[in-house]
Amino acid sequence: MKFRVGVISGDGIGPEIVKEAKKVLDKVGSEFGHEFEYEEILMGGCSIDATGVPLTDEAIEAAKASDAVLMGSIGGNTSTSPWYTLPPNLRPEAGLLKLRKALNLFANLRPAYLYEELKEACPLREDIIGDGFDMMIMRELTGGLYFGDRVTEERNGVMTAVDTLTYNENEIRRIAVRGFDIAMKRRKKVTSVDKANVLDSSRLWRKVVEEVAKDYPEVSYEHMLVDNCAMQLVKDPAQFDVILTENMFGDILSDEASMVTGSIGMLSSASLNETKFGLYEPSGGSAPDIAGKGIANPIATILSAAMMLRYSFDLDAEADAVENAVKQVLKDKYRTIDIMPQEAERAGEVTQVGTSKMGDLICERI
Amino acid sequence: MKFRVGVISGDGIGPEIVKEAKKVLDKVGSEFGHEFEYEEILMGGCSIDATGVPLTDEAIEAAKASDAVLMGSIGGNTSTSPWYTLPPNLRPEAGLLKLRKALNLFANLRPAYLYEELKEACPLREDIIGDGFDMMIMRELTGGLYFGDRVTEERNGVMTAVDTLTYNENEIRRIAVRGFDIAMKRRKKVTSVDKANVLDSSRLWRKVVEEVAKDYPEVSYEHMLVDNCAMQLVKDPAQFDVILTENMFGDILSDEASMVTGSIGMLSSASLNETKFGLYEPSGGSAPDIAGKGIANPIATILSAAMMLRYSFDLDAEADAVENAVKQVLKDKYRTIDIMPQEAERAGEVTQVGTSKMGDLICERI
Ligand SMILES: CC(C)[C@H](C(=O)O)[C@@H](O)C(=O)O
Ligand SMILES: CC(C)[C@H](C(=O)O)[C@@H](O)C(=O)O
């Protein structure tokens, strides 16, 4: 089969890590008899430099024309990069938000789990880690505070800023359905997170989730307040299977969850719409401080490509092959610098490799 | 001196823990020659049961008439308590929100630190704990999503809920000033947390904080995005001194930070207005599951009373005496059940005591 992959290399370490993911896709292609055609799409800081805006209409069209989009990372150092002297709607991140909305990518899936081999990188105590944990954050991505009306203006001589948090029942229902669907393929538990003791939008959220839950009698579900969830992620992450939540809470909790695993360089994500189309990107940022040094961890991007194979192209065996190759490379004790053991004596047991070598090693195992 | 203390015992474990804090205040009174006069104020579930509403106007007046308010906790089990079948504005928590607004308690201080003696309760790995950590979350408490307009209504036949997040420059300035003031008495570092890459209110927040920072040349400050802060609290909590943030982010981050310490039963909080007046309460919840069993940890409430002595009554020596008594009781190896060591062999080294006994032991050390 032939697939058109839109590629947003982006800024910082983006181009380096995307290059390795393409290498892996090509290896999958030759092993399994598929062809991946890449179309470079400009977004973020590099697009600002080239076109003056973080995302052009042509770029949106190119993304729409592809079967799925693979992304590296966008943005730079917010204190030193000139991109951040531009008005907010012209900064790199505005491109990403615009693309999410334009492609209607309302369902953001962020797996967070503990790699047995990287247990020591986990910031939690061993007895809390226990047998490990494996959760999926299902974050609503095109509603809420991110896309509400906003204004900054003088009111009675006082500068005032307003953002609005809006959700309607349809927006909540479609993400809730996604959350319960995915729970059915996992451990059949949904934790819906909101702030229903304060927000109207959360109370509507809770009501709609309860309606949706009725269609999934096999799934056990619970409601949890966002402040409590922020605690529980540290106290007992193993309790979670699927965490279902709105845009801003999902932003905060998914980052907390990925840090709790200790291996943010390993975590992929998918942003999906109603069709098979999706945007796939690593959970980590553009890490401008290490860009160009050839030391960035490409695994999260490679695993994002695996998610693309699975969710957008229905190539489950191929996705498994990539995921297993990643597991094998860890078992074979290869590490990029971000996942090296902390203690010097342990470091001797593993081999530190750069971005490109890590890509090669994974390809060899496919 | 004579002080009028409004007392909100509240629900769940509230009455038990408040009783111990009063015991301690009385001991301070007799040792240092002060008199504390208590006035019981109804709020939360117990007020609903007695009056039909979670906070009456008389209760507000009683709070206003006192020099400071000491609170236990309010609310019950949200799934089983009949209080949660009431409309949102009649539930227990609505009383607390109403009181915060009525008394203009805009500055919420939540210390989060590692007790050397309770290091093992910390969910983080020893090398991350390092020499420990000690931060103060300064949360804005009367603005933002908590107090914005909200509505739930049909729009084109689709049920839609809207909450609004509003901040004006004056609201931001007064909390920022508090944050920098307190940093001056601490390690002189402020981390201002926002989501300036998305929200107008955060961009105004950042601008005003920068203006305020100019008046504090000795304080080093930085801006941090809320998603990053949620990660950093787990990765390296020692980096923080004062975290300054808006209401909803502060709700989430302060709970995360207190769980990171592992000793939520030890953490106090203060909610202050422009005067010396304040509301003092433990960080933990009403824990209805253990209410009435005499096992709740009263220390957070006792330390909240110490904060009251310090911030509202300017009784620094008295506050020190209470805080030192708490430290001593831990050194003397007394523990309530929530802070008992996990390992059986270690448990033998300490003495487990109940709520009332813990209060007595602290009194003895004042
Ligand atoms: C870059 C930023 C706007 C974005 C977000 O907040 O959604 C990022 O943090 C993410 O989580 O993908
Ligand atoms: C009870 C609830 C409304 C409250 C809040 O969200 O502010 C609580 O979580 C807190 O942090 O004091």
Automatic annotation (TrEMBL), chains A, B:
It is an enzyme of class 1 (oxidoreductase). It catalyses: (2R,3S)-3-isopropylmalate + NAD(+) = 4-methyl-2-oxopentanoate + CO2 + NADH. Pathway: Amino-acid biosynthesis; L-leucine biosynthesis; L-leucine from 3-methyl-2-oxobutanoate: step 3/4. Gene3D superfamilies: Isopropylmalate Dehydrogenase. SMART domains: Iso_dh (SM01329). Its cofactor is Mg(2+); Mn(2+). This is 3-isopropylmalate dehydrogenase. It comes from Maccoyibacter intestinihominis.
